[in-house]
């Protein structure tokens, strides 16, 4: 049963979201319209593409969503709508992944693409005050060479709001080590870096992301639960895991919600933040993810506040802005009755 009072409280809780993909956040109605406009086949319609049962089915659905974005105006529209939806959930700032290769392989002009995103962002920001940074997420299955092309585009479009670089996609066949050079160059260029790791592979993938790629924030990282040394290291070094419970169940990364390690990771002192990953595809949102933690894993309101503050601490905002946002959150949290 949904506790309306708790849900309301979570909505009011000031939040940031650090792990959310633009292509997985398109409103169903908008996706239907874009598919029709751009002649993209969605077999069985939007609801059918949400019905996947494993990780490869999920990636397939995800790529169909990405293929529906064909013009600068499409990027502007989905960014604008996405940010309005985020603001309505009480989200003040988000870091949004863009699956760069999905667009680069169609030869999309990245200045044009990022100008579309920026226009949608400007409009949503002026209406709601929400803020956003863009992270280019490189699908590992496209390989390291293509990764360097993505990096070049990321550097070239920083002026339009790109702040970082990441790897996602097929973690099973493409370990972090392959992308060492790409990440080294990204860090040298001043981009912030993160990586999906320990989502469907074990602790070795998280160690690789830390030691070979130099990341201090990990997408998912749930399989760290298998390695006490890794958990201790994450705690001591303050390396954050962006946890997305519904995503992990829907993609089959965990067998069931009961087996999700979020509570055990939190109790072991591993620094965590909470995200929705692909809210439209997983039919969830950040408020629902917090609610799940409360109702299924027994997180109390103080613990949820702690997770919200962790999001600000782990964000890639420039240090002064990060500190200002943290101070504002702290003030708002004090005013929010627990
Ligand atoms: N792209 C979008 N969501 C993803 C996820 N959960 N894992 C890997 N790649 C992704
Ligand atoms: Zn992700």
> Tell me, what's the shape?
globular
Q: Can you tell me the CATH class?
A: Alpha Beta
CATH superfamily: Metal-dependent hydrolases
One letter per element, helices H and strands E, the order comes to: HEHHHHEHHEHEHEEHEHEHHEHHHH
Q: Which value, in Å, is the CA radius of gyration?
A: 19 Å
Description:
Helices cover about 55% and strands about 15% of the residues. By secondary structure, the chain is α/β, with parallel strands linked by helices. It has one domain: Metal-dependent hydrolases (TIM Barrel), CATH 3.20.20. A five-stranded parallel sheet has the order 1-2-3-4-5, sandwiched between helices. Strands 6-7-8-9 form a four-stranded parallel sheet. Helix 9 links the parallel strand 4 and strand 5 (about 190-195). Helix 1 packs across helix 15 (about 285-295), helix 5 (about 70-90) packs parallel to helix 7 (about 110-130) and helix 8 (about 145-155) runs parallel beside helix 9 (about 180-190). Bound molecules: adenine and zinc ion (ZN). Adenine (ADE) binds near residues 196 and 278.
Describe the SSE topology.
Layout: H1 4-12, E1 15-21, H2 28-38, H3 45-49, H4 55-67, H5 72-88, E2 91-99, H6 100-104, H7 110-128, E3 131-139, H8 143-156, E4 162-168, H9 180-188, E5 192-193, E6 195-197, H10 203-213, E7 217-220, H11 228-237, E8 240-243, H12 245-250, H13 262-267, E9 272-274, H14 279-282, H15 286-297, H16 301-314, H17 319-335
Parallel strand pairs: 1-2, 2-3, 3-4, 4-5, 6-7, 7-8, 8-9
Helix pairs in contact: 1-15, 5-7, 8-9, 16-17
The chain binds adenine and zinc ion.
Zinc ion binds at residues 19, 21, 168, 196, 219, 277.
